[in-house]
Amino acid sequence: MHDITQLVSKVLVLDELGMGFDSLKAFYEECGLVGIRAQKNDAASVMAILKSNVDLGGIMLHENFNDNGLALARDIHAMRPELPIFLRRDAIASVAGLSEKDAAIFRCAYTLNDLQVLRESLAASIFNRIYPNDLVRGITQITSIALGAVFRNCEIEVETPYLVKDRIIYGEVFSMIAIESSWCRGYMMLQAEEDAMMDMIQNSAVAEQGKVTFRALNNVLSEATNLVWGAFKNRYVGQEQNKDNLLLTQVPIIINHQRHFISFGSDDPQLCIRYVLRDSQAQAAPVVLFQRFVFNLNWSPDQFRETTVESLVDSGELELF
């Protein structure tokens, strides 16, 4: 039995709370939610946030937000249908009174007098996927080592891992590699802004003579991706064999470049880890690198095992000296 990591998730809060602000904020913290708010409450500002690279787990909306929360919910759902919307109502902890079409927009409706409905809905939608603590911690370790090997003049800062429900691509460049094992199948992605990453490469030990091009960036990101997958495979996959590889199910991957959107055909929350690369010689601005795991084809955390020296000895891959 593995310890479960207490992951967090960012939610966009569209709620002009008065007296209930402190109690709802405490509830968010208890549930692992990190609330963010727009500086302006107008619809244009809210939609601008949703068009940006802010990765979210859901929307917390008050029915009377900006005097017309329902109309705003329709616009949000049309733009970002993958994001669950949780509706706070003043009197009724249900979608009673809404049309069938409008009611279908919301994951749940709740009031401040009874937050249990919201708690259960959060558990069923945003936090419905278990990630073993050993796995999450190990991923951050092997990724930090891989990034340090590629960007040798950088300090690697790892932020708290969290869950996202959106499908937004961060930046202009990303790598993707298949993750294959008997207990998980899906993809890992690394995403970054091109200009910032190229500046970092230009001022790092990986840069060759002359100006760095996007092709050099591709090579560096590819190397980092391969290093992470190689370490992941050695640590969590080992020498296992899947004889049914040719029969494994696949699903289409949809990418919309204009909207910075990617879909793997799954509504499950993705594991996201944010890394900040800081040039130790301060010759380049810090670079943000997003790592995402989407286990859309198979996820069986109860079968997760970390490869140890003892297991390799038992299997005959190693022998004691």
Core attributes:
13 strands; Rossmann fold; alpha/beta; 2 domains; single chain; six-stranded antiparallel sheet; five-stranded parallel sheet; 321 residues; Chemotaxis protein chec; globular; 32% helix
CATH topology of the largest domain: Chemotaxis protein chec
Radius of gyration: 22 Å
Overall outline: globular
User: Which residues sit in consecutive blocks of at least 5 with pLDDT less than 50?
Assistant: 308-313, 315-321
- CATH superfamily of the largest domain, by name, is CheC-like
The biggest beta sheet is recorded as: 6 strands, antiparallel
Total number of distinct structural domains: 2
What is the beta-strand fraction? 15-25%
Q: Tell me how many strands there are.
A: 13
CA distance, first residue to last residue: 31 Å
Helix content: 25-40%
* Element pattern in H and E: EHEHEHEHEHHEEEEHHEEEEH
CATH class of the largest domain: Alpha Beta
Category from helices, strands and their pairing: alpha/beta
Mean pLDDT: 85
Instruction: Give the oligomer, counting copies of the same chain as homo and different chains as hetero.
Output: single chain
Helical element count? 9
CATH architecture of the largest domain: 3-Layer(aba) Sandwich
Task: Give a short overview.
The chain has 321 residues and is an alpha/beta fold. It contains nine helices and 13 strands. Strands 6, 7, 8, 9, 12 and 13 form a six-stranded antiparallel β-sheet that branches. The chain has a five-stranded parallel β-sheet with strand order 2-1-3-4-5, with helices on both faces.
